[in-house]
Amino acid sequence: MLSEARFVGLDAGRDIIEASVRPTGEVWRTDAGDDGMTQIAETLSAIHPQLVVMQANGNFELPLAGILVTLGLPVALVQPRNLRDFARAIGRLSRTEQRPAGLLAQFAELVQPEAGPLPNDQIEELKQLRVRRQEILEMMAAERSRAGHALPALEKDILAHVQFLERSLSAVDGQFSRKVRVSRIWR
Hints:
- The chain contains six helices and five strands; from the N terminus they run E-E-E-H-E-H-E-H-H-H-H.
- By secondary structure, it is of the alpha/beta class.
- Helix 1 crosses helix 2, helix 2 (61-70) crosses helix 5 and helix 2 packs across helix 6.
- The radius of gyration is 19 Å and the shape is elongated.
């Protein structure tokens, strides 16, 4: 038995990620942190959407898009102008008339923009950056735990190491976002 094709619109903001699935009408929201992105990725992997569409604003969607691509999900990042033109064409003159994720899902279903598949070497780079990010987070948690129980002389050294790890995390995040931005999924 063939399952119904599903199209997903994701609206990634600073604090919240909202997902909308068409034609089922499912909508859910999660926080935009690491746990939220992981939750969205796992949920989407389980439903096997035909296409995931996000608006290419250049900020909050990049890490999530990269994670989805590494899981083999078809992702298209569309320019805001294309989404505004689509909304106007279907009679939605305001983003408030429909949730952004819903509009993105409808765009995915009706327009079906091409998802830019990435070459395996680019996917592998993104995967390695995510692994490194997780390693840094684990080191930071361990060092913060040690700092609370260390002698004052050692605590200063441990906190300096945490600051170094925070800069490393920022660098890895920046590199991950840049790799997504220069990839084929960025339209």
